[in-house]
Amino acid sequence: MATASQSEVQFRFVVAGGGIAGVTCAQQLASQFPSLDIVLLTAAPMVKTVSNFRQVSKTLEDFEVEEQPSSVLEEKYPNLKVIQSAVTVLHAKQHTLLTENGQVFHYEKLCVCTGARPKLIIQDNPHVLGIRDTDSAQEFQKRLSSAKRIVVVGNGGIALELVYEVEGCEVIWAVKDKAIGNAFIDAGAAQFIIPSLEAEKPKKALPCKRTRYTTDKDTAPNTGSEGPGSALGPDWHESISLRGAEQVSPHLIALLEPIHSVLLLLKIAVFPFSTGVWPIYAQLSNGKTYGCDFIVSATGVVPNTEPFLHGNNFDLAEDHGLKVDEHMQTSEPDVYAAGDVCTAGWEPSAFWQQMRLWTQARQMGWYAARSMAADILGEAIELDFCFELFSHITKFFNYKVVLLGKFNAQGLGQDHELLVRCTKGLEYVKVVLRGGRMMGAILIGETDLEETFENLILNQMDLSPYGQELLNPNIDIEDYFD
Ligand SMILES: Cc1cc2nc3c(=O)[nH]c(=O)nc-3n(C[C@H](O)[C@H](O)[C@H](O)COP(=O)(O)OP(=O)(O)OC[C@H]3O[C@@H](n4cnc5c(N)ncnc54)[C@H](O)[C@@H]3O)c2cc1C
Ligand SMILES: NC(=O)C1=CN([C@@H]2O[C@H](COP(=O)(O)OP(=O)(O)OC[C@H]3O[C@@H](n4cnc5c(N)ncnc54)[C@H](OP(=O)(O)O)[C@@H]3O)[C@@H](O)[C@H]2O)C=CC1
């Protein structure tokens, strides 16, 4: 590091954002260049670290995530300096960044990993909440504890988790699609998991290979002003109580809750000022108006790009993400981006699509660091293998869910056929085929099929001779294709 002036410091590598993408990128750079100082600028006092990483199969990953004070990272990587101060301005041409505390950083290579924030249906309304980081989850928990009815809008990951996890409170679930969970599963899978909403929840979670999330907020240094934190992730709700105000005796709770209603939503109009007994009312396209304590807007995310745009020339994607090429490079020289803030702008493999997920944030952060290093060292680098096949392991309604490739026949139009095997309450297996070759799959329950199906998608074997037998439960498909 060389000091250029009293308040301007110079680094070869600067990473902005202390979530999974930024931390992974900074760690990789710090390991690869032990003699260089790497700086990680972040808005929040806590950073996200990956631990116990395990490559389950060629593309499926398993790891734990911890939210920790930045000092933990600095102890592990002596050449990594974490500075808690949000980036406020970027001058890409001059290769300089300005942070909230007035410091100017000159970089040779920058990686922007500033994540995303909830895309709320209504901005700046105290009764419309988004859930993103530890603080917003705690605010949600606090408000829920005295709530009798909430409206959840959206049909993706957060909504799927909330309608299942919330207890002691009536939940009106407003979706604009014909089936629940459209961002992750199909209508058949939705039918399969819906009975779990009414069923009594198991006391103990089903065993499931997936990412664990822990937070250690109590150990965070108290720095006063806290910027936006990193996104929550798997199991974020397990460490907090998601119980509403109806704290009655257990058998009464069973009778009262959860009265989950799924409504088709084409339009939502919210009356910002209460005229009745509820603080807010949501008018849905079924013509009915529902009063509630608050609305959770679980309606996707918007990339956090603002501090970087003014005065620069970034190509932005339709979803407002920083467009990156196959080296995670943006349209501004020497500026890379990874994780939720970016949008993949390269021609993707036939079995991969971007979804703003924890696993992709880690993969992109790691690969961006590799690309930055390759550029400095004058080496060639090819798109990493992890971008060959989309794979995601998660849990919905307490079922293990594995999504592979074009699991919802994304982009295949009519040119595909589906094979489905379903055993009520046990498993749901759907395979997407095109021209007899596997393009994607949804596996719900303990199917143990993920590795075999991953191979069948990657090797594009002609499966037409097997027809329906492919999903015959009496055939040990794993042995068959190994
Ligand atoms: C409730 C919830 C549940 C989820 N569950 C899952 C799941 O089960 N599985 C899964 O794969 N994914 C899940 N996700 C998605 C996953 O958490 C995100 O895709 C992932 O964490 C994105 O990582 P990131 O590093 O790109 O961004 P973030 O984690 O958002 O980190 C961004 C970082 O940038 C910092 N920052 C912001 N602005 C600035 C600035 N101007 N200057 C400096 N720093 C800045 C922030 O402080 C933060 O540290 C979930 C998300 C939510 C909200
Ligand atoms: N287990 C997991 O893997 C989890 C992952 N996540 C991730 O966290 C992030 C945030 O989650 P979430 O907010 O649920 O986002 P998602 O992108 O998962 O889902 C957003 C949902 O909201 C719908 N929607 C968007 N705009 C509106 C609107 N105006 N009115 C009604 N519905 C609307 C979308 O429908 P349409 O697509 O038709 O626009 C979609 O169904 C995502 O990146 C998600 O992938 C979150 C929780 C769990």
From TrEMBL:
Keywords for this protein: FAD, Flavoprotein, Oxidoreductase
Keyword check for Membrane: no
Molecular functions (GO terms): oxidoreductase activity
Cofactors (names): FAD
* Domain FAD/NAD(P)-binding: start-end pairs: 12-165, 283-365
Looking at the record, which segments are called Disordered?
Answer: 211-234
Q: Does the keyword Oxidoreductase apply?
A: yes
Q: Which InterPro entries match?
A: FAD-bd_OxRdtase (IPR050260), FAD/NAD-bd_sf (IPR036188), FAD/NAD-binding_dom (IPR023753), FAD/NAD-linked_Rdtase_dimer_sf (IPR016156), Rubredoxin_C (IPR041575)
Q: Where is the NADH-rubredoxin oxidoreductase C-terminal domain?
A: 394-460
Question: Which SUPFAM superfamilies does the UniProt record give?
Answer: FAD/NAD(P)-binding domain
Say which domain of life the source belongs to. Eukaryota
Gene3D superfamilies from the UniProt entry: 3.30.390.30, FAD/NAD(P)-binding domain
Q: What does this protein do?
A: Probable FAD-dependent oxidoreductase; involved in the cellular oxidative stress response. Required for normal sarcomere structure and muscle fiber integrity.
Q: Which family does it belong to?
A: Belongs to the class-I pyridine nucleotide-disulfide oxidoreductase family. PYROXD1 subfamily.
Protein known as: Pyridine nucleotide-disulfide oxidoreductase domain-containing protein 1
